[in-house]
C-alpha cells in the first residue's frame, strides 16, 4: 500500500508522532519508474536538535527533504512534521517551517527587498517591513537591500537565502548544503548565525551537507545514507567510534567505498 492509498482509507491509522520529534520518518520509499531513490528509511529529528543527513550524490538526501516538505509524494511510508502527518496536513505545517539551499535561485531581476517581501507575504509575516529590516541588520544585508538579486556575489546570495529561510521565524529549518561554494570565513559566519538562531528560538534543523567538519560542529545526530538506504544513525562521536575513525570524513569515505565497520564495535 502506498501513502496515497492511505489518504482515503479509514482503516489505516494515522501516524502517531512523538511529541519530542520535529520530524519522524517511517519506512519511507520513493520509486521513480524502476529506480528506488529512497528505499525503506526510518529516522527522527528531535525537537530543538540539529540532525545531519549525509550521503554522496544520488544517496537520496534531496528526495528525502522534498518528501518531508510535501513537495514530492512518497511511494510508501509515513512522515510526520511537527506532529502533523505529511502531506495530508501540509497546510498546517508550511507556515512553521522553511527551506534554504544555494542551488535554488531567487528571481534575479527583483531586488533583495522585493524578494523578501514576496516570500514574507506568502508566509503572512506580520510587520513584514520591520522583519526585513531586522534580518537586514542581523545578516548584514542593508548595503544591498535594493540591489537586483542577480547582481549579488555568492556570499551575498547565501545571506539573502538565509534571510528568506528565517523570514517567518520557523520552528523547523531544512537546509540543503547551506554553505556550499562559500569561502571559509563566510561559511563560518553562516554556521554561527544558524547556531545562534537555533538556541534563541529552540528551533530544529535538518542539515544535508557534504562538509564533514560542518556536520561535526553543528549536529547532535547524523544519518548516513547510501543508494537510498540508511547506513548508520547515531551521534557523530558514536559513529566515529563504531568505524574506529577520528573524523566523519574518514567514516564517509569508508561508507562510500564499502569498507566495513570496526568488527570490535
TrEMBL record:
InterPro entries hit by this protein: AAA+_ATPase, ABC_transporter-like_ATP-bd, ABC_transporter-like_CS, ABC_transporter_ATP-binding, P-loop_NTPase
Name of one Pfam family that matches: ABC_tran
Entry keywords, A to Z: ATP-binding, Nodulation, Nucleotide-binding, Transport
A single GO molecular function term of this UniProt record: ATP hydrolysis activity
Domain of life: Bacteria
Start and end residues of each ABC transporter domain: 23-252
UniProt record similarity statement: Belongs to the ABC transporter superfamily.
Primary role: Involved in beta-(1-->2)glucan export. Transmembrane domains (TMD) form a pore in the inner membrane and the ATP-binding domain (NBD) is responsible for energy generation.
Record's protein name: ABC transporter related protein
Organism: Rhodopseudomonas palustris (strain DX-1)
Phylogenetic classification of the source organism: Bacteria, Pseudomonadati, Pseudomonadota, Alphaproteobacteria, Hyphomicrobiales
Amino acid at each position: 500500500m502506498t501513502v496515497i492509498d492511505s489518504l482515503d482509507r479509514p482503516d489505516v491509522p494515522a501516524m502517531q508522532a512523538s511529541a519530542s520529534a520535529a520530524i519522524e520518518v517511517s519506512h519511507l520509499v520513493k520509486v521513480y519508474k524502476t529506480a528506488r531513490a529512497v528505499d525503506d528509511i526510518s529516522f527522527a529529528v528531535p525537537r530543538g536538535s540539529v540532525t545531519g543527513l549525509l550521503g554522496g550524490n544520488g544517496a537520496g538526501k534531496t528526495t528525502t527533504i522534498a518528501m518531508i516538505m510535501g513537495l514530492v509524494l512518497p511511494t510508501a511510508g509515513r512522515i510526520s512534521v511537527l506532529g502533523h502527518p505529511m502531506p495530508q496536513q501540509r497546510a498546517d505545517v508550511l507556515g512553521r517551517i522553511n527551506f534554504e539551499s544555494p542551488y535554488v535561485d531567487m528571481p534575479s531581476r527583483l531586488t533583495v527587498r522585493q524578494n523578501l517581501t514576496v516570500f514574507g507575504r506568502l508566509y503572512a509575516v506580520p510587520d513584514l517591513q520591520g522583519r526585513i529590516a531586522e534580518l537586514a541588520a542581523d545578516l548584514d544585508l542593508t548595503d544591498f537591500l535594493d540591489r537586483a538579486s542577480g547582481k549579488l556575489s555568492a556570499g551575498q546570495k547565501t545571506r539573502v537565502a538565509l534571510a528568506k529561510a528565517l523570514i517567518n521565524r520557523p520552528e523547523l529549518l531544512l537546509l540543503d548544503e547551506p554553505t556550499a561554494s562559500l569561502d571559509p570565513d563566510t561559511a563560518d559566519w553562516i554556521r554561527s548565525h544558524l547556531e545562534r538562531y537555533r538556541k534563541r528560538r529552540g528551533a530544529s534543523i535538518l542539515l544535508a551537507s557534504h562538509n564533514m567538519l560542518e556536520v561535526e560542529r553543528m549536529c547532535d545526530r547524523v544519518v548516513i545514507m547510501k543508494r537510498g538506504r540508511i547506513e548508520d544513525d547515531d551521534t557523530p562521536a558514536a559513529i566515529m567510534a563504531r568505524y574506529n575513525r577520528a573524523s566523519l570524513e574518514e567514516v564517509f569515505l569508508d561508507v562510500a567505498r564499502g569498507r566495513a565497520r570496526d568488527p570490535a564495535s
